[in-house]
Design a protein that fits this description.
With about 300 residues, the protein is mainly alpha-helical. It has 13 helices and 2 strands. Helix content is about 50%, strand content about 0%. The chain has a two-stranded antiparallel ribbon.
Length: about 300
């Protein structure tokens, strides 16, 4: 088996890392930036430099919508005492990028991840709930600070609070934590008529349906999330979600997300991070029209 060199040593991928950091946002008006993931995946498959260069050139021609505005929205940079006041502002991606680049350069990637992701609010966002985690996993796997900063900036600028998942102690939620993730999807979510307005048959963009569903079914989604009997071992819990994603017939971004979480997950992650990931699986399942799920086994 041929062991490929570190992708950071490839000139085309290195240029893509720099360009992504300086020129392009991760998402804008539902356009998403998959450039770096595609190039690294092709590199791992042994694609030649000539082909990589061709793919890179063709990709950036389609990325004008993702260009970072030359004039930032904020005149002043973000600081440690005010960055959280701007969470969820999609126009501040470049300001967040500058902030997290600075944090990493001063404190290092481990401290920055610990403070802002593992023990901070960014691990609990449900705004743009797939690509940021995939991008973060790339940065962690290959130890690329610029990519980690991009992912954190994307999580911050697309932030959507998931605090509705936190179960208030004074609310009786009924029995909790006694079903597998598979059983919840097949025996509960699949047949619940209250999710019908958000299925793939509705002629609306997926992000629009997603936002409407989060707004109108929060209590229902929380109920199903809390029915999951989460394995004590976080690795087993993520494996359960990954297997479920494949059983849904999902071969693209959801599988990549659950695989990425296995890279990103850390012993300091709270159980709420797992609940957020299960919420993502449920939502994606509904938005895809609740397809048939194969039998359960790990």
């Amino acid at each position: 088996m041929t062991i490929l060199p570190d992708p950071r040593q490839n000139a085309i991928i290195l240029k893509a890392i720099q360009d992504n950091s300086l020129l392009y946002q991760m998402e804008y008006k539902h356009h998403q930036n998959h450039l770096l993931y595609i190039l690294i995946r092709l590199y791992e498959l042994g694609v030649s430099n000539g082909e990589l260069k061709k793919v890179y050139g063709q990709s950036i021609q389609k990325m004008d919508m993702l260009r970072i505005p030359e004039v930032p929205k904020l005149a002043l940079p973000l600081y440690e005492n005010n960055w959280f006041n701007h969470l969820g502002d999609k126009d501040l991606y470049s300001s967040f990028l500058q902030f997290f680049d600075h944090q990493i350069s001063v404190h290092g990637t481990r401290h920055t991840l610990e403070r802002f992701f593992y023990q901070g609010p960014l691990s609990l966002t449900i705004g743009s709930h797939r690509l940021p985690i995939v991008h973060l996993a790339l940065g962690i796997k290959y130890e690329i600070p610029q990519v980690i900063a991009q992912a954190l900036s994307f999580l911050a600028s697309s932030f959507r609070d998931s605090s509705f998942l936190l179960c208030p102690s004074h609310v009786d939620e009924g029995p909790m934590g006694y079903l597998t993730a598979h059983e919840i999807l097949v025996e509960q979510v699949q047949v619940d008529p209250r999710f019908r307005p958000f299925s793939a048959s509705v002629q609306q963009p997926i992000q629009v349906r997603y936002e409407k569903m989060l707004k109108s079914t929060q209590e229902l989604l929380r109920k199903y999330v809390y029915l999951w009997q989460i394995p004590k071992d976080k690795g087993e819990a993520l494996l359960e979600l990954g297997v479920l994603a494949r059983q849904m017939g999902e071969k693209d971004i959801l599988v990549k997300t659950t695989e990425a979480m296995s890279v990103v997950h850390d012993k300091t992650c709270s159980v709420e991070v797992l609940r957020v990931q299960f919420l993502n699986v449920i939502c994606w399942y509904i938005l895809q029209g609740r397809p048939r799920v194969t039998s359960y086994s790990i």
